[in-house]
TrEMBL record:
GO MF annotation terms: abscisic acid glucosyltransferase activity; quercetin 3-O-glucosyltransferase activity; quercetin 7-O-glucosyltransferase activity
Name of protein: Glycosyltransferase
Alphabetical UniProt keywords: Glycosyltransferase, Transferase
Keyword Glycosyltransferase: yes
InterPro entries, per database record: UDP_glucos_trans (IPR002213), UDP_glycos_trans_CS (IPR035595)
EC id: 2.4.1.-
Top-level taxonomic group: Eukaryota
């Protein structure tokens, strides 16, 4: 790079909505601060992006460049169903393709063109690719900082995780609030998927070679944990990484990378609902609920007689996943009160004045978005980091409730109705809303001029400038 030219940052993301979203949002922040971004992901994202019109805003190729590589599988391969094959092919063939792509980009642009590579945690091997190409790297951790600390303990002090058979057993991990075994991320438990354990192990080792670890939260959300980590394993919060309109800022770069077409008609539907009257329900981009879970939610919604907007994502193209069906007659019986869509612009929905609360699987992006919108939560976690995230809500944030469910992970109709009632009209409903609005305020401040996350981004850019001299 010669003086006066923009610094260039490479960003690499897995083809998962919950990963692409925060990475794209960080890219937009960098661009606004004068950097040029090249965002690399797999061809399946390009295939989806081209299909959906809601993805296009103003694409300025001078600011952001998209590059795609093959993950080694055909476009119609069901990556959700055969995750083992997906992850192993991505690591073996996909990594080679990504490396070749970066090599070509360097050939075109020149040695030392890229100041840094920002890496998705599901691609730990990309950190080695950055080393091979002499590019300093940073990890963008897209779960709460608490989860990063748990992962650190898991890999440094495995004894703390031995003999955790009873789901109600209390676990004391340094720097963290007391947790129960059932609140730990699944990969730390004996029944956790070996695939995830392997990726986390690789990430733990690879992360030692990154110069920075960034978190998508903001300092106020997790200050005790961030302070605890500062001396040994520093993590820098640069979030909340949500769309800028949610923070009251101008959205100058209009591009989105939605993997499904959002049904914008639901916004018009919300316009006709009164303030804080609608339950918004979504379980993110990966989870497929069981038939029993869907039946119980449907029954609880019908009995509660509240308005609701429910996202039920269809099966992937070529997928054999059995997407549960709504109980017969449900749509007809609830047509005055409810709307079911396949996908929506969740951020717009959460910002709508008609939305009263969010029934969510507690994916970290969804939680950050609801915090920024000031909308209380009804947590229905399933696996991965979700149970831990849910525990954080209950204990620390106090901006909602978490459902109780049996060993089969299914919440009963009564429990769902109880949770809805508690958040919408229970004795602590007002307190939860107040807490949600306080957190919204803190989140907005973090990315304002002089805010903690904004300062961390500026510091990172300064670090990059210093590395070049
Ligand atoms: N999302 C969306 N429309 C929907 C449902 C989800 O745009 O109908 C977005 C949501 O805003 C969030 C992402 O998909 O940014 C889901 O990420 P999260 O971490 O919450 O869950 P995951 O999908 O990774 O389980």
């Amino acid at each position: 790079m010669t003086s006066g030219e923009k610094m260039n940052v490479l960003m690499v993301s897995t083809a998962l909505q919950g990963h692409i979203n925060p990475i794209l949002k960080l890219a937009k922040r960098f661009i606004q601060k004068g950097l040029h971004v090249t965002l690399i992901t797999t061809e399946i994202v390009r295939d989806r992006m081209l299909n959906y019109t809601n993805n296009y805003g103003t694409i300025n190729q001078q600011e952001i460049q998209f590059e795609f590589f093959s993950d080694g599988l055909t476009l119609d391969f069901d990556r959700n169903k055969d995750k083992d094959k997906f992850v192993s092919t991505l690591r073996t063939i996909g990594s080679k393709n990504m490396s070749k792509l970066i090599e070509n980009l360097i050939r075109i642009n020149g040695h030392k063109f890229y100041s840094c590579m920002i890496v998705d945690p599901l691609l730990p091997w990309a950190i080695d690719i950055a080393i091979d190409h002499n590019i300093p790297s940073a990890l963008l951790w897209i779960q709460p900082c608490a989860l990063y600390l748990i992962s650190y303990h898991y890999h440094n002090n495995i004894d703390l995780f031995n003999d955790l058979e009873d789901p109600n057993e209390i676990v004391q991990l340094p720097g963290l609030p007391l947790l129960e075994v059932k609140d730990l991320p699944s990969y730390t438990l004996s029944y956790g998927a070996p695939r995830t354990k392997q990726v986390m192990m690789e990430l733990y080792h690879a992360a030692k070679n990154t110069k920075w670890v960034f978190a998508t939260s903001n300092y106020d959300l997790e200050k005790e944990i961030i302070d605890y980590m500062a001396s040994g394993i520093p993590i820098y919060p640069i979030g909340p990484l949500v769309s800028q309109f949610m923070l009251g800022e101008n959205e100058t770069i209009g591009i989105n990378m939605n993997m499904w077409e959002a049904e914008d008609s639901c916004i018009g539907w919300l316009d006709n609902k009164s303030c804080s009257s609608v339950i918004y329900i979504s379980f993110g981009s990966v989870i497929v609920l069981s038939q029993e879970q869907v039946n119980n939610i449907a029954m609880a919604l019908k009995n509660s007689e509240k308005s609701f907007l429910w996202v039920i994502k269809p099966a992937e193209i070529g997928s054999e996943d059995e997407v549960p069906e709504l109980p017969q007659g449900f749509l007809e019986e609830t047509k005055e009160k409810g709307l079911v869509v396949k996908w929506c612009n969740q951020e717009k929905v959460l910002m709508h004045h008609a939305v009263a609360c969010f029934m969510t699987h507690c994916g970290w992006n969804s939680l950050l978005e609801t915090i920024v919108a000031g909308v209380p939560v009804i947590g229905y976690p399933k696996w991965g980091d979700q149970p831990t995230n849910a525990k954080v809500i209950l204990k620390k944030f106090q901006n909602g409730v978490v459902m109780n469910f049996g060993e089969d992970g299914v919440a009963s109709v009564e429990e769902i109705m109880r949770s809805i009632k508690e958040v919408m009209e229970g004795s602590s409903a007002e307190e939860m809303k107040k807490r949600a609005l306080e957190m919204k305020e803190e989140a907005r401040k973090a990315l304002e001029e002089g805010g903690s996350s904004n300062k961390n981004i500026d510091q990172f850019i300064n670090d990059l400038k210093n590395l070049e001299h």
